[in-house]
Amino acid sequence: MNEWQSGFVAANGLRLFYTRTGGDKPPVVLAHGVTDSGLCWSPVAAELAADYDVIMLDARGHGRSDVPERGYGPEEQADDLAGAIAALGLTRPAVLGHSMGAATALVLAGAHPTA
Questions:
Q1: Domain that holds residue 27
Q2: For residues 112 and 92, what is the distance between their CA atoms, to the nearest angstrom?
Q3: Mean pLDDT of all residues in the chain?
Q4: Class of residue 77 by CB neighbours under 10 A (exposed 0-12, middle 13-18, buried 19+)
Q5: Total structural domains in the chain?
Q6: How far is CA 85 from each of CA 46, 69, 81, 92, rounded to the nearest angstrom?
Q7: CATH number, residue 94
Q8: What is the C-alpha separation between 115 and 93, in angstroms, rounded?
Q9: What is the pLDDT of residues 29-60, one digit of tens each?
Q10: What is the rounded CA–CA span in Å between residue 54 and residue 30?
Q11: How far, in Å, CA of 106 to CA of 29, rounded?
Q12: What pLDDT, in 10s, does the model give residues 54-105?
């Protein structure tokens, strides 16, 4: 198993924290639910890491990401996610989400279909 990498990415005017499994494999972005952080997906990422480069992003106001005063709707979250996908140089990753992350993924698909 490769050592996972962590860092910050600038997206939509914010610094968003991410952890990724790495490797030259198809990317999968995992979007967490409210009150969680990206690392809530760690057991899933461990299972997927052999076949995918798994990216677990902390949404705005969660985990180690910036905490803006406002803008916590699914539209802003989707804009953040689209910005992070672009900043990380990902090409059309699969995006999975639960709870708030599922709403974010749904809005992302409609508002940013090429992300």
A1: 5-111
A2: 10
A3: 97
A4: buried
A5: 1
A6: 21, 23, 6, 8
A7: 3.40.50.1820
A8: 8
A9: 999 999 999 999 999 999 999 999 999 999 99
A10: 7
A11: 13
A12: 999 999 999 999 999 999 999 999 999 999 999 999 999 999 999 999 999 9
